[in-house]
Amino acid sequence: MGIKLWVALDVPELPAAERLLKTIAPHRDIKVGMELFYRLGPDFVRDLVDRGYHIFLDLKCHDIPRTVARAVEAVSDLGAELLTVHAAGGFDMLEAARGSSGGQLSLVAVTVLTSLDAAALQQVGIETPVDGLAEASARTAMRAGLAGVLASAC
User: Fold this and answer.
1) DSSP label at residue 58
2) Phi, psi (deg, nearest 5) at residue 76
3) Which of 11, 118, 144, 145 sits CB 3.0–4.6 Å from 95 for a disulfide?
4) Of 4, 22, 31, 60, which is the active-site residue?
5) How do the domains of the chain map onto residue ranges?
6) Cα dist. 28→35, 38, 144, 153 in Å?
7) Bridge partners for 150 per DSSP
8) β pairing state of 29-33 and 54-61
9) Partners of 29 in beta bridges
10) How does pLDDT run across 68-121, given as a tens digit for each residue?
11) Is 60 a catalytic residue?
12) CA 15 to mean position of chain CA atoms
């Protein structure tokens, strides 16, 4: 597969989303994040897929393995191509997610949120440096069979 550029549809409401889609036409590879997904719901994603868009859902799923597996299964029915899950959920959660992806949905693990630095991690009891945590998270995601990882360039 060649390089694919996903345009972030990081806007708060439908009119702004439609304006952005019109502006970037004929580009069809779109990332939909939590804010827009939570506002407009799964029908918005289905509509985009029906209109020929390729969807990357950036939802950072993170919960117990069974709950994430069921969420991934539900997202698989929407027609999205990619979905983010949070590596912090651990190997069992990542493996359960992959097992529920149905073959049409690729999973990408978020390693460490860009908003977290060493001080923020220490506040929640994590002493591992950010780069070490990102590397360990990426290795876990790869062991679980995910398609890839997202890691900050900084």
Assistant:
1) E
2) -55, -30
3) 144
4) 60
5) 7-150
6) 20, 21, 29, 25
7) 110
8) parallel
9) 54
10) 999 999 999 999 999 999 999 999 999 999 999 988 899 999 998 888 888 988
11) yes
12) 23
Please tell me the predicted confidence (pLDDT) of residue 122: 87
Residues in contact with 28: Cβ distance below 8 Å, sequence separation at least 6, in sequence order: 52, 53, 54
Q: How far apart are CA 46 and CA 60, in angstroms?
A: 19
**What is the rounded average pLDDT for all residues in the chain?**
93
pTM for this entry: 0.92
The first and second tokens of residue 113, run together, are 């949120």
Q: Among residues 96, 109, 113, 90, which one has the least CA distance to residue 149?
A: 109
pLDDT at position 121, please?
Answer: 86
Contact (Cβ atoms closer than 8 angstroms) between residue 108 and residue 84: yes
Q: Are 66 and 91 in contact (CB under 8 A)?
A: no
On whether the CB atoms of residues 57 and 82 are closer than 8 A, the answer is: yes
Q: Which overall architecture, per CATH, does domain 7-150 show?
A: Alpha-Beta Barrel (3.20)
Q: Give the E-state strand segments of 1-154 in sequence order.
A: 7-8, 29-33, 54-61, 82-86, 106-110, 148-150
Q: Are the C-beta atoms of residues 112 and 152 closer than 8 Å to each other?
A: yes
